[in-house]
Fold this sequence. Notes:
The chain is of the alpha+beta class. It has helices at residues 11-21, 27-36, 80-94, 109-114, 148-158, 163-172, 202-214, 231-239; strands at 2-5, 42-45, 51-59, 63-71, 99-104, 118-129, 174-178, 181-188, 191-199, 221-227, 243-254, 264-266.
Amino acid sequence: xxxxxxxxxxxxxxxxxxxxxxxxxxxxxxxxxxxxxxxxxxxxxxxxxxxxxxxxxxxxxxxxxxxxxxxxxxxxxxxxxxxxxxxxxxxxxxxxxxxxxxxxxxxxxxxxxxxxxxxxxxxxxxxxxxxxxxxxxxxxxxxxxxxxxxxxxxxxxxxxxxxxxxxxxxxxxxxxxxxxxxxxxxxxxxxxxxxxxxxxxxxxxxxxxxxxxxxxxxxxxxxxxxxxxxxxxxxxxxxxxxxxxxxxxxxxxxxxxxxxxxxxxxxxxxxxxx
Length: 274
């Protein structure tokens, strides 16, 4: 078994494996990660060249993310996932990441705990449908970049600047902003993901959410990934008829982050870069 750099041609087979696991993943994530931090993205291949597993990572300013750690069923149990995880971890530390994030399933948590990762929150996936009963009007003004206050709010929430991630997600989606927060509506196959999504207060978050839902056609699935510790967000989701369909543990290693979940109403992605 050899560990090699993740290649662009690995995207399609990874997406097939991810779909079999019930993961939500899109090609843009890998194109983005390959462009921003290729030295932290790897694939494991056997002696016949068959790909056995994958992992990606992203280095931001003072922090980084490990994601998309996935091993094909026939190769599980041989320690490939551990090797891939360590390679990504080493790449982030070499790049200067002081805090390293990831989201973990219950079965994956013990591996990360052995590498001194600590649980800091649970990320809950909420699912619902759009409410727009007429043709959706695309306001081209909503393609404008996120304003400086939105970038600063995201920094307050995560304890680090994530400008490259915000630029990538807002460029491909629709942006709604007000004086207290912002929400990005990202296309995700036939569904729409709300996130990144942050607000200084619940009332502003509710206004942004309702406007965003009202711009999505009736019957179109929407989802967002919300920190469980933001109890105000959970109450709002329930009032709006959203339902929980899964969760993962949010973990970190290294310097404890200045994490403010009460400001977070939706992550950019669940699995690869927060």
